[in-house]
């Protein structure tokens, strides 16, 4: 507005159009809200109106969506919404998410404000800054047509006689139009700033920042798991195959070496070292990302971890037929593996148990994982038992980890990870729920 060419630019017209559509839209919203509430009150006698009155809370959603589109007329910056995605599919989860959001209530407040106060103010402003000056500017035309060139009343209050007075009124109206253009621009800017503050904050609002952080954290987890799988695949297909070939070559060389000689002994030691290196590499590959987890899923991987544990483990898994998300499966597996390692190293337990199930709670789905033992107890995350690392890994997926381990035992580690029941990129498994163990 401070530029000299402002009056020659499209911005005064855009500001006027923004305020005009705001006034019309506010009046329409006011009529709609009054009619909706009246229908809800009347129908509340037969209980049908109760849901209608409840839906009024969500009236701000469509209004805010229209306001974000209207902002483009006077504000070139993006106007994204501040709503988060529901944690689960379905109408119930969507309603629960929207009713808990601050953005929903801000948009409702904006709707009530626009319908009750803003649109009358915009209408009066357009009348004073645009309609009245335009009518004054048209005084010579009115005098020549309506007043027969002799006399005319401008705005029904000001009598103008003669062409000189009519042209003076036209000049005054033109000056008022210029001033009105600046007034409309300032008013449209203030209106847009208020709208953006309530329904389209530039930073997306706290909810949008939480969503952005959550999504970026999920992308980091996915990238981390993809890198682990790549390293596992490279070691499996590269270094492991070379060690196998080396061991076979050493075995063939032993067959050609004179028996009992120093060469045969050196070759035997070299073959033993190659075999030990191969075994260590296989264990390392299994620790990075076990192939059984990628190929057969969490049940098989948990059973494999239980078989490898030096402490006997009872396993019970009740999981859905579609595979869980890869990040969830990986986190759950490493929780089980690290927990069983802690049981073997620190608990002195004679037996351990692992239970995993998929439950629905509060409109969302959770993987619930429990690892317990009959050991001495006293597990403490501050003593380097790996519990802190497990809690951090689970928290990345918005999960929780709790440990109950009184002195004397028993110890129970419980993990809850929210997840969606969907097919991952890896091949799925046969349908139907199954118990494993």
Short précis:
With 437 residues, the chain is α+β, with helices and mostly antiparallel strands. It has helices at residues 11-43, 49-55, 60-70, 91-100, 102-137, 139-145, 163-199, 205-256, 262-288, 291-296, 298-308, 326-347, 387-395; strands spanning 151-154, 158-161, 313-319, 352-361, 364-373, 400-404, 411-418, 434-436. β1 and β2 form a beta hairpin.
Key words describing this protein structure:
437 residues, alpha+beta, Heat Shock Protein 90, 3 domains, two-stranded antiparallel sheet, 8 strands, 61% helix
Mean pLDDT value: 80
Uncertain segments: 421-437
Radius of gyration: 37 Å
Helicity, in percent? Answer: 55-70%
Strand order of the largest sheet: 6-7-5-4-3-8
| Number of distinct helices | 13
- Overall outline: elongated
Write the SSE topology:
Layout: H1 11-43, H2 49-55, H3 60-70, H4 91-100, H5 102-137, H6 139-145, E1 151-154, E2 158-161, H7 163-199, H8 205-256, H9 262-288, H10 291-296, H11 298-308, E3 313-319, H12 326-347, E4 352-361, E5 364-373, H13 387-395, E6 400-404, E7 411-418, E8 434-436
Helix pairs in contact: 1-2, 1-5, 1-7, 3-5, 5-7, 8-9, 11-12, 12-13
């Amino acid at each position: 507005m401070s530029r000299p060419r402002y009056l020659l630019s499209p911005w005064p017209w855009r500001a006027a159009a923004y305020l005009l559509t705001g006034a019309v839209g506010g009046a329409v919203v006011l009529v709609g809200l009054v009619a909706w509430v009246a229908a809800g009150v009347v129908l509340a006698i037969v209980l049908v109106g109760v849901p209608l009155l409840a839906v009024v809370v969500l009236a701000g959603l469509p209004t805010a969506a229209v306001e974000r589109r209207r902002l483009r007329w006077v504000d070139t910056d993006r106007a994204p919404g501040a709503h988060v995605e529901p944690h689960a599919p379905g109408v119930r989860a969507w309603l629960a998410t929207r009713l808990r959001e601050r953005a929903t209530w801000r948009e409702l407040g904006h709707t009530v404000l626009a319908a009750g106060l803003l649109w009358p103010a915009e209408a009066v402003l357009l009348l004073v800054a645009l309609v009245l000056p335009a009518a004054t500017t048209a005084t010579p035309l009115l005098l020549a047509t309506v007043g027969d060139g002799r006399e005319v009343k401008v705005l029904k209050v000001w009598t103008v006689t003669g062409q000189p007075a009519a042209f003076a009124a036209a000049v005054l109206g033109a000056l008022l139009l210029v001033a009105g253009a600046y007034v409309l621009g300032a008013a449209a800017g203030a209106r847009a700033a208020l709208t953006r503050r309530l329904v389209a904050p530039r930073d997306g609002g706290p909810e949008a920042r939480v969503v952005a952080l959550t999504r970026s954290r999920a992308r980091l987890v996915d990238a981390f798991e993809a890198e682990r799988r790549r390293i596992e695949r490279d070691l499996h297909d590269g270094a492991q195959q070379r060690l196998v070939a080396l061991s076979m070559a050493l075995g063939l060389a032993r067959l050609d070496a004179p028996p009992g000689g120093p060469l045969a002994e050196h070759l035997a030691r070299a073959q033993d070292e190659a075999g030990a290196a191969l075994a260590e590499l296989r264990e390392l590959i299994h620790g990075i990302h076990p192939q059984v987890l990628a190929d057969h899923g969490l049940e098989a991987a948990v059973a494999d971890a239980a078989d490898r544990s030096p402490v006997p483990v009872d396993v019970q898994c009740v999981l859905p037929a579609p595979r869980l998300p890869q990040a969830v499966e990986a986190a759950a597996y490493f929780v089980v593996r690290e927990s069983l390692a802690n049981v073997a190293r620190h608990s002195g337990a004679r037996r351990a148990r692992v239970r995993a199930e998929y439950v629905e709670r509060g409109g969302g789905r959770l993987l619930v994982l429990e690892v317990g033992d009959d050991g001495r107890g006293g597990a403490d995350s501050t003593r380097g038992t790996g519990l802190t690392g497990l809690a951090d890994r689970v928290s990345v997926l918005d999960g929780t980890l709790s440990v109950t381990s009184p002195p004397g035992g028993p110890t129970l580690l419980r993990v809850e990870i929210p997840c969606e029941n969907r097919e991952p990129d890896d091949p799925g498994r046969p349908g139907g729920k199954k118990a494993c163990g």
